[in-house]
């Protein structure tokens, strides 16, 4: 029996840069009651340099801009079955134009281990 504080979360990788939380919720709600969806955007700062010859000197102009390097998300369900069904049903599928990678999140595995006393497949005496 699951504790109320155990979360059943799956990781969703390789998302398009414009993916929103509602996009995840809508795509994953077919597997069960989604209680949370989050999108994470890792950003980098990049610089462009332009070199040119002026009449007096060799000059350089630079501009710095932000780019989205990696976009991924998390979808949390009320129960373990929904999460496992989502992993099985969505891994390798397209969301938008990209093929997504879906797997059980590490936090879900840790939460269940703590709940069962850290012993997988055994009962505490």
Task: Chart the SSEs and their pairings.
Layout: E1 8-13, H1 21-28, E2 34-53, E3 58-77, H2 80-90, E4 94-95, E5 98-99, E6 101-104, H3 106-115
Antiparallel strand pairs: 1-3, 1-6, 2-3, 4-5
Describe this structure in words.
The protein is α+β, with helices and mostly antiparallel strands and 125 residues long. It has a domain at 8-41 and 70-115: 2-Layer Sandwich (Alpha-Beta Plaits), CATH 3.30.70.330. It contains 3 helices and 6 strands. Strands 2-3-1-6 form a 4-stranded antiparallel sheet. The protein has a two-stranded antiparallel sheet with strand order 4-5. Residues 8-107 form the RRM domain. InterPro entries: RNA-binding_reg, RRM_dom.
- Poorly predicted residue ranges: 118-125
Task: Give the termini distance in whole angstroms.
Answer: 17 Å
Radius of gyration: 22 Å
CATH homologous superfamily identity of the domain at 8-41 and 70-115: RRM (RNA recognition motif) domain
Question: What is the count of helical runs?
Answer: 3
Shape: elongated
Q: What would you call the structural class?
A: alpha+beta
The CATH C-level class name of the domain at 8-41 and 70-115: Alpha Beta
Helix content: 10-25%
Query: What does the largest sheet look like?
Result: 4 strands, antiparallel
Protein traits:
RNA binding; Alpha-Beta Plaits; RNA-binding_reg; RNA-binding; RNA recognition motif domain; two-stranded antiparallel ribbon; 43% strand; four-stranded antiparallel β-sheet; RRM_dom
